[in-house]
UniProtKB/TrEMBL annotation:
Protein name (record): Eukaryotic aspartyl protease family protein
Origin superkingdom: Eukaryota
CDD domains linked to this entry: pepsin_A_like_plant (cd05476)
Biological process annotations from GO: proteolysis
SUPFAM superfamilies: Acid proteases
Domain Peptidase A1 span(s) in chain numbering: 70-426
GO MF annotation list: aspartic-type endopeptidase activity
Cleavable signal peptide: 1-22
Active site positions, chain numbering: 88, 305
Amino acid sequence: MMDLRYLLLIILALEILCVANGDNLVFQVERRKTTLSGIKHHDHHRRGRFLSSVDFNLGGNGLPTRTGLYFTKLGLGSPKKDYYVQVDTGSDILWVNCVECSRCPTKSQIGMDLTLYDPKGSHTSELISCDHEFCSSTYDGPIPGCKAETPCPYSITYGDGSATTGYYVRDYLTFDRINGNLHTAPQNSSIIFGCGAVQSGTLGASSEEALDGIIGFGQENSSVLSQLAASRKVKKIFSHCLDNIRGGGIFAIGELVEPKVRTTPLVPNMAHYNVVLKNIEVDGDVLQLPSDIFDSGNGKGTVIDSGTTLAYLPVIVYDQLIPKIFARQPELKLARIEEQFKCFPYAGNVDGGFPVVKLHFEGSLSLTVYPHDYLFQYKVAGVRCIGWQKSVTQTKDGKDMTLLGDLVLSNKLVLYDLENMAIGWTEYNCSSSIKVKDATTGIVHTVGAHNISSASTFLIGRILSFFLLLIAMLNCFYN
Ligand SMILES: *[C@@H]1O[C@H](CO)[C@@H](O)[C@H](O)[C@H]1NC(C)=O
Ligand SMILES: *[C@@H]1O[C@H](CO)[C@@H](O)[C@H](O)[C@H]1NC(C)=O
Ligand SMILES: *[C@@H]1O[C@H](CO)[C@@H](O)[C@H](O)[C@H]1NC(C)=O
């Protein structure tokens, strides 16, 4: 049906094109920014016009020393097979590993059984060719040298340098439609997603945290959310509550009724969910920062991204914040662990020993980050590491980017209201439940928390070996 070598040639050509155009985006989550119109017309298999609320079963946790990611289980194809995909608000497509993939992971040490999607194994699978409208809108125009029956390629490089390359297919996505209190029923929709052919970095075969793929909840028309909205299946409103204490949490599409959430405007026309951060307060003192440090014009601003584990601040901000955090603890000594973390032994309750950090956003919305969130426990009791990091990514005009990941988003209900271009949050117990309104009937339903178990002997093994490493490092440090 398709020649993989030809596909790779196209991909290579496209990548060269992108680089030549200087289209190397801020934050590099996606190599090319895309537009896409009229998915609606192409959803020939549209069934019904009722707007659903959708419940995604979550698993994982955002702890850098545990799985470091949140994932959900989706059904694809007919007959349906289950896939575990990372949930990421910083990218725009769904893709899963496919058969014939080179360097695709086949087992995960997170504890899930991985499944490769096989287009030939699903009788509803269709190849999206490069002359399909989805494809040309993804690439902002026709693909040079495109011949019918040549697959439409995709290629994404994520912020950590990991990459996935493959081609688009269309098939049925089965999800859980909320139809009662803590009750769902399966519903399906035909959607276009990526079939992964080549993976690298943390997405590759040797990765410890490999899953079947990634579902991007970005704003672009290519995201599952946009495709479901274009076929009138859902409204573009979703919320998540990521539980880093017990793992899992809540992830639902639908109008949020409870809890009530205050919001801040989303910066329009941005590739990601950007908001305007005004200032940072530590222990009641506002940091004295250059006024344009979090400026939101021209690709600047603060990115909210559930697919990132930690929180990254401009160097100037970081250098002021850290001394303030440790002001009450002058005797503490920091040691580097695993190159990337600055840690220290601390047996007490960190919430008593360290200040809260408050981020203030446009629209009088603030986000309180508690010491137990930003000083994460390093695998063993009695050792804490700083979650705040210096920004590693620069915007187009050379400014350090502010990127807020699970470190600050966990244990909060975060609402993304794309119908009103706003985003907001509130302190919340992610093991409890929320209420969403069914847009068709107006009936309010309760949606509960889930935790797809990811327990495995691997994690225990890893904790033990890190424990040994840690002891060795601390011994080094103190002697
Ligand atoms: C996305 O789709 C909408 C509705 O189909 C369309 O109006 C809009 O122009 C599209 N946006 C882009 C960037 O293609
Ligand atoms: C999609 O849902 C419809 C209605 O519930 C069902 O008849 C059909 O078999 C489903 N299709 C797939 C591919 O799951
Ligand atoms: C959070 O909610 C769960 C489920 O309702 C409950 O068991 C737990 O006690 C709550 N935790 C807190 C800290 O309130």
